[in-house]
């Protein structure tokens, strides 16, 4: 399964909200910080998923601001509407390759862990730049490589052993230099790249979390087809790999991303 096939259906969007939001929590806070959001700003969240970036942005811009969450996946947007009752968020089903919104509509355009799942990157990055107003900030994140990911690395290795083929590995091979160069050209101003390491905190039912997070990804149907034996093999592999990060209170394991930040000239 390639990264460009990241689509969820059935119950997966609800699981995504429950299990992926904790994984991304530290990334979200860094994105909001680098976007320099202010009261009254207009914000676009591209590939918004179930809306955890959009919700945080809505808090930052206050009732006088507005946030638009954009995603191509109707199931994700349905979950976003259920979990995000804020009046200042609007949800739009559309492709990031051709956003049906006017030029210079936003003070900040955010794309948190979405760019690596697009079939190509140049067009959506240029769309993000087009939608930022003068002085508007564009913040894009993409995962750092698997070799520096003590959670994601073992997870994808376990998927490959169970399913017999690599899945989603190209999501961890998105070159930040390409994003930076494209944004800088489209924005007419240099862009910066930052490597950021956050922490995934999980307390309570660790085994349940590990399996739940796996089932929030597009591999869920294939994993479920393996039955209880597949679940046990996956969870055992993850617990073994995560042993250095496990304590009596759960786990604290590093997760890391690149942030590319630009500003419209």
Note down, in words, how this protein is organized.
There is one protein chain. The protein has nine helices and eight strands. The protein has 265 residues and is of the alpha/beta class. It has helices spanning 12-35, 52-61, 74-83, 122-131, 152-163, 176-187, 206-214, 220-224, 227-241; strands spanning 42-46, 66-71, 89-93, 106-111, 132-143, 192-202, 246-247, 250-263. Strands 1, 2, 3, 4, 5, 6, 7 and 8 form an eight-stranded mixed beta sheet that branches. It is globular.
Properties at a glance:
alpha/beta
pLDDT < 50 runs, ≥5 residues = 1-10
> What would the average pLDDT be, to the nearest integer?
93
Helix content: 40-55%
How would a textbook summarize the main sheet? 8 strands, mixed
Radius of gyration in whole Å, from Cα? 18 Å
C-alpha geometry: globular
Count of DSSP helices? 9
- Sheet-strand content, in percent, reads 15-25%
Helix/strand/pairing category: alpha/beta
Provide the succession of SSEs: HEHEHEEHEHHEHHHEE
Number of strands: 8
Task: State the distance separating the first and last CA atoms.
Answer: 39 Å
